[in-house]
Each structure stands twice: as structure tokens, then as C-alpha cells.
Amino acid sequence: LTTSHSQYGNGVEGALSFSRQTPVYAYGVYTMAASSHYRQLGWFHEEAPPSFTSQVFAGYSPSYDFGSMTLSYTQENSRKNKNRSAAALNYNKNLTRNLLFFINYTRHLGQYHDNSVYLSLVWTPTQRYTVSGGTYHAEGVDGSDIQITKNLPLDSPYGYSYRVRAQQERDQNNFEAGFNWENQHGTYTAQY
Fold it and tell me: What is the average pLDDT value for the chain, to the nearest integer?
């Protein structure tokens, strides 16, 4: 339960969740509701978070060789925009000790009748580095990307990380790079 006070008045938000996980199955539900005057940091000025959000999920992972599969449904009631809902199916499997295969299929329901598919391979040659590549189809657009990441050190809360990403969508090529440096005074970020 959280409260807020802004120029729009006092607001309240409440959330309730339950989840259960066994070695083979996982399932859960999450629900959040907010009053009309509730405001939250990170939302644009004069924009309120959704009035209601609900999610249910179920997962199945019978063995290491099978991988794991998750089915989820999410509904979000917006205050100003159209309400959204989506069903998603995720599957991932370790192909080797350092190579993960991931696929996601999402079906947007209600007024947004769109499907999206994302396939990805994630390679972790060491604990410090991750290389991922994928291809996707979303909102009628096909694209692909590759990303190289150097993670923060596991043995220290301080250090640096970087991310380089190349993306191709339609006939356009995009390039992104980011650098984070963390020390006892804070986190410093640069992006291109």
C-alpha cells in the first residue's frame, strides 16, 4: 500500500500478489489498483499510472533437458489511453552450459490486434561478458539486433559495465552504446 500527495490531491495505490514455485511448476497472480489522484515518480507530468493492472502466469519446467515454458496474461486499464491486454508464451532452454535459446510470442488482445515474436540466443562465455542476438517481428516490422555487454563484477559492488547494440529495422540501421560506472558515490551513465 502506498500513498502520494501532489497538486492533484492525495492518492493511494494497493497491490496484492501470490506466487508458488516448485521444481516443476510455477504459478501466480498480481493485481494493482490506484485511485484517480495517485501519482508516481517516473510518469510524465499530468499522467497517472494505470487505474488497474492484473497479471496471471503459469510455468512448467519438467527437466533440465526440456527447458522451461511460461504462459501469462496481462490486463492494464489506463486512465486516458485505451485499455490493453496481452497473452504471452515464453520458452527458454540451455543448449549448452553457456548458450541459452529464448523465444517469446505475444498476442495483443482487445483493440490492439497485433502479434509479436522474438527469438534470441544468449551466450555467456564468462561471468563478466554476455553476447546476445535476436530477430523479431512486432507491429508489422521485422528487425534484428546484437548486443555485447560487460557486466559489473560479482565480487564488488563497484566497477564498470558497457553495452553495445546494433539494430536493423526496415531499411534503417541503428547503433547504441552505453557505459555505466559505479563507485561509492553513485552511478554514472553515458549513452550514445
Answer: 83
Asked if residues 134 and 123 have their Cβ atoms less than 8 Å apart, the reply is no
Measure the CA–CA gap between 169 and 177, rounded to whole angstroms: 17
Q: What is the Cα–Cα distance from 72 to 109, expressed in whole angstroms?
A: 13
d(CA 46, CA 175): 32
Extended beta strands in the chain, E state: 2-6, 9-21, 25-34, 52-60, 68-77, 84-96, 99-109, 115-126, 129-138, 141-150, 159-169, 172-183, 186-191
Q: Is 95 left (phi over 0), alpha (psi -120 to 50) or beta?
A: alpha
43 pLDDT more than 70: no
Q: Which residue has the higher pLDDT, 185 or 54?
A: 54
**Phi and psi, residue 44, nearest 5°:** -65, 155
Q: Which amino acid is at 176?
A: E
Confidence grade of residue 73 (pLDDT, cut at 50, 70, 90)? very high
Quick one: which of 95, 98, 74, 70 has its CA closest to 84? 74
Measured CA to CA, the distance from residue 55 to residue 37 in angstroms comes to 23
State the Cα–Cα distance between residues 88 and 106, nearest whole angstrom: 4
Whether the per-residue pLDDT at 20 is higher than 80: the answer is: yes
β pairing state of 52-60 and 25-34: antiparallel
- Rounded average pLDDT over 4-16: 80
